[in-house]
Amino acid sequence: MMSIAPGYRAAVACLALAAMTAAWGLPLAHAKELRLLNVSYDPTRELYQEVNAAFVGHWKKQTGQTVVIDQSHGGSGKQARSVIEGLEADVVTLALAGDVDATAASGLIARDWQSRLPHNSCPYTSTIVFLVRKGNPKGILDWGDLARAGVAVITPNPKTSGGARWNYLAAWGWALGRPGGSDSSARELVAGIFRNAPILDTGARGSTISFVERGIGDVLLAWENEALLVTRAMAPGKFEIVVPTASILAEPPVAWVDRVVARHATERVSRAYLEFLYTPEIQEVAARHYYRPTLEEVAARHTAQFPEMELFTIELFGGWSRAQKVHFADGGEFDRLYRGGAR
Amino acid sequence: MHGTALAARSARGELRAAHLSEPRWVRATLIGVALVFLGIFLVMPLALVFAKAFEGGISAYAAAVSDPMALAAVRLTLVTSAIVLPVNLVFGVAAAWAVSRFEFRGKNLLVTFLDLPFSVSPVISGMVFVLLFGASGWFGPFLQDHDMRIVFAMPGIVLATLFVTSPFIARELIPLMEAQGVAEEEAALTLGASGMKTFLRISLPKVRWGLLYGIVLCNARAMGEFGAVSVVSGHVRGRTTTIPLHVEMLYNEYQFSSAFAVASLLTVLAVITLVVKYTIERRGFE
Amino acid sequence: MTDGATARRASVLPGFGLAMGITLTYLGLLVLIPLSTIPLKTAAMGWDRFVEVVTSPRAMAAYRLSFSAALAAALVNAVFGTMVAWVLERYPFPGRRIVDGLIDLPFALPTAVAGIALTTLYAGNGWIGRVLQPAGIEVAYTRLGVVVALTFIGLPFVVRTVQPVIRDLRADVEEAAASLGAGRWATVRRIVLPQVVPAALTGFTLAFARSLGDYGSVIFIAGNLPLVSEITPLLIVIRLEEYDYPAATAIAFVFLIASFLSLLAINLLSWRQRRALGRA
Asked: Per-residue DSSP letters for A64-104?
């Protein structure tokens, strides 16, 4: 058999050529531009479209630089894992502090990230409400109705979506607050709700589409901003919002990713971008997209849009790190209660 | 005996004698059923792409196709193909040469391995690269330390596409080269030509049509690959979305017209691929 | 002819070393090493967890759907594809060449484009859907949709495998049968089909293999409801999105093994069928 050494050399040469071309392809193409990647959770597409356009103009006026902002949207948990696995986010705007904590734990974000921006790094908040079809044919009025037989509940997958985890904890917290409520009654309720879920999409927007466009399910457990988006903009007249007797204050935080901004030399612009979210102008934009602004003066102007609700917070569960560990980690409450059905 | 028989072969376009063919009604029914089947499965989807693409009018079509995100997707798709095609070309020709010109132990095994990417689900094809190069993969820590990104970046997309399209050119060439035989090459060698010269001047030109079709098919697949790229890409619009991923994104956001408009780009490419094949076959697959 | 010559004169032609070197390096680095991650990662998982994941109701439902839909689609293609091949080769009709060229469309069209086109076509308000839905036939977002998508994907395989065989059928044998008094149907049944069926079986196998793991064409038209209309590749993707790599790898491993085994089984069956027909 003839020597195959020349073959190896040729092959290595080809592969090296390909590798060089590939390495050239991505980074150099963007070297000259100032680019920011905002890795966000699922429903914020429209919000950041408007915010980004405003920021680009604002930054240009302030510094003369042109900045390009790329967006990535998906279930918050999934997005956090992607960043940990190497997705180069300059800023993360996720659904819950737990996901940003997880990213911080991997060394990418400073541990004290939450105190770096006002209101615990939450420029806007929201809550969880129900979206039902017009006329509320199944008569869904409160959390208890969701576990009834014959009701199909649409919620995303808590393993990937932040909204889904807020849904879960809102139900659990409501059950705890009932007379005679306990962990076991809460567990029963939440298990019943997930038993009634025919499909678990990866993100909140996916669930919205399954419910609204594909017509699956009787009730959607949704971010308040998603529900309002549907009833005001996406499909007015076809759906109704049902506000439960109690729900959870959902606080989606934002943070810049220290390791990445250091590498990309984008710390200044990333910081400015996140601080921009707290300006009255952008707080108005948030309210327009149905997010509850945290700036008091702006919030005061929009009380009509956001009804008074009985809201408990994540503190009921001891904070996100505890909630994640108890409920959503491998082998936690969710894994144990989610039997049969889709798991 | 053969006076009335018009054709001895079932060559294209030639009528067969009555006793060698089916009764008229059978023929009509079969043609009808075949055309309805093809009409439903092939023609309608093709027509629908273009109908939906232009549903909003020419300006909506132009807007969708010239959208910066769409253009970024086109750029990424083209760069990926530009890398994948030459690499797979070299590999395909080398593999075809080895398999069709020589006998050796383990040849059957090699051919099976050549076909392997063909029978692996695209999702799995992408997944293996995440398992290799993702942060928790075999090479993950090494890549992190050296600040290199493969998954969620273009190199990952290129690798996944290389994997999926690797069999195409070899599969086109092997049967062709086996059927053609080596008489010309041997003649050239006996006349004193070097191996490389023989290869370039005799062997390659002999297979040029098969090679061309293999390249065109490989290109169509490389540009259209979805499952494998979806798994490694990270789906960052404007950065790591190829045309198929961009189409998916638009479709999932219920921007149907735009989705089909961008999809029509690859559909036109598909039609061009078919035309190329048709032309090759008509002009002569020598 | 020259094939035997190739074998005998292997050492005369140059380039074996170079060609094999390139081939082996490329295959090793790009195909074999990456694929080996699957069994290796699965092995690291622990037997109990492995069994729990791959035999879960959701995984079983996904395998069932993937395999049954691929089989059904390949069957449809075997029957109709043979018919199409026959029509294309034997019956001249206007536009035949164009139709013949169109057969390769599923090869050339991206799977995602096929996916959204088929879904839009068969959805309730689509061109075909609006005809079928009043009749109670739901295609989009059901298992039937999966079969339709996989039929599209596998269509060229049967046609292209059977066409050359029909083309090469020797008319003189048919002539002889006719002259001996055999009716047309008898001739077809006993002379033509035994040659065509093996090719159709090969095409069936190829169509099955190709459509089994397809993702892009199916993901839009399937309902993607767990336990009902979720294909195996989607389940793998969902586990990947949850970053549950062990589960994703385990399901992929089982799916790969099952795919290879079923291909082997079909090949064996068609080989035996070929032998039986050869003897008849």
From this structure: S--EEEEEEES-HHHHHHHHHTT---SEEE-S-HHHHHHHH
Distance from CA of C36 to the nearest CA of B (A): 8
A11: left (phi over 0), alpha (psi -120 to 50) or beta: alpha
Structure tokens at A251: 């606080």
The arrangement of strands across the sheet holding A254-256 comes to: A67-73, A34-40, A91-93, A254-256
Q: What is the count of residue pairs from A and C with beta carbons less than 8 Å apart?
A: 73
Per-residue pLDDT of B21-50, as tens digits, reads: 778 888 899 999 999 999 999 999 999 999
A124, A252 contact by CB (below 8 A): yes
- Collect all residues from A whose CB is shorter than 8 A from any CB in B: 1, 7, 10, 14-15, 18-19, 21-23, 25-26, 37, 45, 70-72, 74, 82, 84-88, 206, 209, 213, 263
DSSP type of residue B20: G
Nearest chain C residue (CA) to B161: C30
pTM: 0.86
Q: Say whether residue B135 is in contact with chain C using an 8 A CB cutoff.
A: no
Contact flag A70-B238 (C-beta cutoff 8 Å): yes
φ, ψ dihedrals at A5, nearest 5°: -60, -45
Q: Which residues pair with B138 in a beta bridge?
A: none
As a whole number, mean pLDDT of residues A252-264 equals 95
Which CATH class, in words, describes the domain spanning B56-283? Answer: mainly alpha
Break chain A into its structural domains and give their ranges: 33-122+251-278, 125-250+308-337
Q: Is the ipTM of this complex over 0.90?
A: no
A329 lies within 8 A of chain C by CB: no
Is any Cβ of chain A less than 8 angstroms from the Cβ of C31?
no
Is C90's CB within 8 Å of B37's CB? no
pLDDT 10s digits, C110-164: 999 999 999 999 988 889 999 998 898 989 888 999 999 999 999 999 999 999 8
Contact status of C13 with chain A (Cβ, < 8 Å): no
If residue A153 lies in a helix (H) or strand (E), which one and from where to where?
A: strand A153-154
CB contact under 8 A, C243 and A341: no
pLDDT tens for each residue of A105-137: 999 999 999 999 999 999 999 999 999 999 999
Residue A227's alpha-carbon distances to A142, A239, A304, B78, in angstroms, are: 16, 9, 16, 40
Integer Cα distance of A327 and A323 in angstroms: 6
**Domain boundary assignment for chain B:** 1-53, 56-283
Superfamily of domain A33-122+251-278: Periplasmic binding protein-like II (3.40.190.10)
CATH number, domain A125-250+308-337, options 3.40.190.10, 1.10.10.410, 3.30.930.10, 3.40.50.1820:
3.40.190.10
User: H-type helices in chain A, by residue range?
Assistant: 5-25, 27-30, 45-63, 76-84, 97-105, 118-121, 162-177, 183-195, 204-212, 224-229, 258-264, 267-276, 280-288, 296-301, 320-323, 333-337
Q: Any chain C CB within 8 A of the CB of B233?
A: no
Give chain B positions within 8 Å (CB) of C25. none
Distance CA A35, CA C28 (A): 38
Distance in angstroms (rounded) separating the CA atoms of residues C19 and A5: 11
